[in-house]
Amino acid sequence: MVARSRSRRYWLHILLLLLTLLTTLVVGAHLQYNFDHNLPAFTSEEYQLPALLTHKILHIAGPVVLDLPFPLKWILQQPQRLTLGIPFATTLLCILLAHEMGHFVYCERNGVFATLPYFLPGPFISPIGTFGAVIRIKSPIRTRQALFDIGIAGPIAGFVVAVPVLLGGLVLSKPILPQASGSLIDLGYPLIFHISHVAVRLVLPQTPSLSMMYLHPVGVAAWVGMLATALNLLPGGQLDGGHLVYAVAPRAHKWVTTATVAVLALLSLFWVGWLVWALILGLIGRRHPPVAPWPELSKGRIGLSVVAVGLFVLTWTPAPILGQGWLVGK
Question: Where in the chain are the domains?
Fold first, then answer.
């Protein structure tokens, strides 16, 4: 039975959800406006750091101005623009919610106490307005079967929601015009985008190629959802992929995590963001909370592990973000 005596701070979940809704509305509104007016999708605004911070704390004499991918000044000029961000914000939050609720539901089914999702707003720093969502597991996971089910439920649930969103986003997209070039970041598309694009073109032959497409904000939300799936399925640490590795082969977890860190470090040549993930896994990810080795996984779960590998292949790309913008590679 789940430990019902443990309380959940509903007010904090609601507050973080509302803040994340606000930050994603800000970003989504700008994306939609730029899409409608054939302007570069992602742009930056200049923000000057307060003199108290730069002079007194950082001991910097002159003003410090940062280019950040968050259009707050643009929104404050006309706050009613926020309504433009509804398609992006709602679809993105639904994908993130599906992923985390997949974990939550299987925690409940396996008698594991977990929090509701904590949404993480990303003002100023995140070009998509959020750093995703997480749940915290606060009681032991007692069997490898439960660990496997909890680990795989999130990626499957998020992917199932993201696929129709992706198809709709591709249908709503349009050919990119010359004046829309020069975006702060360009998106690198995973395999699922190419497969979905082929499927859409069978029905709508006039659909532009991915390389010549201005992706609708709903499609951008699907891209974020697919990237989140790939990141969570990295086979290491206490990411979803790390849980699955430990559930399938507990003794291999540490070595698989080490290998993943090495591969990510090499892949940082294509996208510097992989270096961040390599550091995260290298510093805090090698150890996994112990789970009883018996009973072993069923054949059905072993088969589902192949599905997890397939999801990772479909959603992963060596360079998710291209160009000269935010956390980019070459």
Answer: 10-322
